[in-house]
């Protein structure tokens, strides 16, 4: 699913403010003190004083000094966990095959794959020519390079001399000659786009700074389309670049001036059309350009209509349209590719079965869907034959299509996992319905030397009853034999925004918690998409509080049903899930022994009130517009964590953020922790800031493991299992 279909988390940006002073740590237990510099805002007759607005001044030395002091304090307060952190990191490393190789994916005359090498932070992107009569993907022993391998891009070489590294684009041209790739060395998700000649290994002089995600090649690979952002960091322009020319000569193909909408670009699997997707949270419009005529004028598939969402996939003589026009959980239709017009039904709307995507192949369509809280795949043969759903054995699982670049194929690659089953890659024959396991992610023996055995763990689906009588699903995993008498510690994870679903996933790092007797649970609250579009609608705008009360109901249910006790329960969430963490801390501080809030959107009202901040306007369809609507203002003010800190006994709180995060500004958790200390003194509140990363945290895999070990050590300490 392209990135713009699911924004997934709040975007934010830096704000300026008066500088403040920092009181350094003077004793073992004294936290840094943020000086109060009152700043006022008034909306709808309501005046709010923000004493810590100065912390948004990212370039001010006082801000950096304060964050550095907070890091030092956090390190001091968690120094007793150093040995445990080292153990947890080592357990992740021991269980992970460090030198490894993904299952190669065929595209044209090559197999494409990525390798990792022990001791190296980043992947090595490679390909190897397909050999005569070769139908199955090649394998290698212990992740060694394939015979005849061609290295396309080595992330470790690109990252040399940088604390952070991320790839934005990695796009091989249809003829296999060029590689378009983009790099980010700060974490702000602003990339420099380059083109590499794969026949010579040389970089072309083409260099385009300030690009965003999304690229697409023309048929003859002479033209590359890409995306840039406006001053509010909203993806708003699609450009056309002629390979070998200067970036200054590039042409704007599509510009979106409505600040509610963002744009994206991609090449269809058939390689016949360039798709320009224009999308707000609730409305969309798709334009197409023949890939063989890249200078042609974009044609609109269907003009935008407020509240109507649709996506497009090319299939032969038709465009497939997945849409919600009169179909809350979406329906599938098609229209002519030569003269787009009326939509002809293909799969009628079925309430409770949410259609999420359609992938077209020459002789089959594969629809990704979800029903009863589980993901699924439906196959529609073209030209005759009954449609069917692919069956999977476990009661809880996640399944979806993996990389499938070939249009003319009789099999598809899919990815499967559960809370106890490691990530598994299958090739599925669309005709014979046979499924072949190509690879299951290795889980090596842990500290005790025993191999991983999924039979030693059990997963469950439970249901909590919300305050309004709604049944809220919970997914759980624990070791077999974990007591149900309330004595087991538990981590409860949540998100609940943007229709993003927290489907069951496998985690090597989580094994370290499970093996110490911890129950891991996921609360599938309203605001997510687990139970269809209505589930999402009931947790957004003026129904947002359902997300928070659902999570608390799940926590209470886990205690009532004997899974854990409130003094043995830690909550965890990130980004919009960090907003959830801050809200439940205010709503039910007695329900948790600790709370982990990663890159948390805890100052939501301040951000959503400022249309000059990155993507605030696009977020109004998710949260409401408090700038214009006094009801939305009052509602958001009543739940925004920073606005509602009270003089109560809060559980211990660990807030983790990144200085260069462009989605949720570091100052939100920094201000939140400062206000917690001022209003509810005596609590255990920690702030940890990555000084050289973005929204996703550290970019290297070893650094990410250390970060996870740090958080898990803190959780175990709060649960009495340190």
From TrEMBL:
The keyword Hydrolase applies. It comes from the Bacteria. GO terms for molecular function: serine-type endopeptidase activity. Pfam families: Peptidase_S9 (PF00326), Peptidase_S9_N (PF02897). Keywords: Hydrolase, Protease, Serine protease. InterPro entries: AB_hydrolase_fold, Pept_S9A_N, Peptidase_S9_cat, Peptidase_S9A, Serine_Peptidase_S9A. GO terms for biological process: proteolysis. Residues 31-438 form the Peptidase S9A N-terminal domain. Residues 505-720 form the Peptidase S9 prolyl oligopeptidase catalytic domain. Gene3D superfamilies: alpha/beta hydrolase, Prolyl oligopeptidase, N-terminal domain. Belongs to the peptidase S9A family. This is Oligopeptidase B. The lineage of its organism: Bacteria, Bacillati, Actinomycetota, Actinomycetes, Micromonosporales.
